[in-house]
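Final report, closing paragraph on structural work. Over the funding period we assembled a curated collection of sequence-structure pairs, and we close with a single example.
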Amino acid sequence: MAKLNLETMPLDELWKLHGEVITALASSMEAQKLELQKRLDELGVRFGGSPKDVPQPRPYPKVLPKFRNPESSAETWSGRGRQPHWVLLLLARGGSLDDCRIQ
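Its predicted structure, as stored:
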């Protein structure tokens, strides 16, 4: 392919070249993706059965909130994970989690 002088090329031709490059990259990436998926499927069959046999993580049930901010009823917390800012402030003021427990 001949080397292009991009600095002297008209703007319309640059945009056309841009579109051609984007199209070529997209098709090349899609072909590479299909090849990688094919290789992964082959490895899965070789080492562990079909890709459909790979165990999926079990779905966890929805956790209902156990605590509600007494100052803003829209803010709730399930009691799992990091404590929200409003819980930290409540505890710092000497309050307890029982003060905001949902009955």
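Strands lie at 67-68, 76-77. The chain has two domains: 11-53, 67-100. We thank the funder for supporting this effort.
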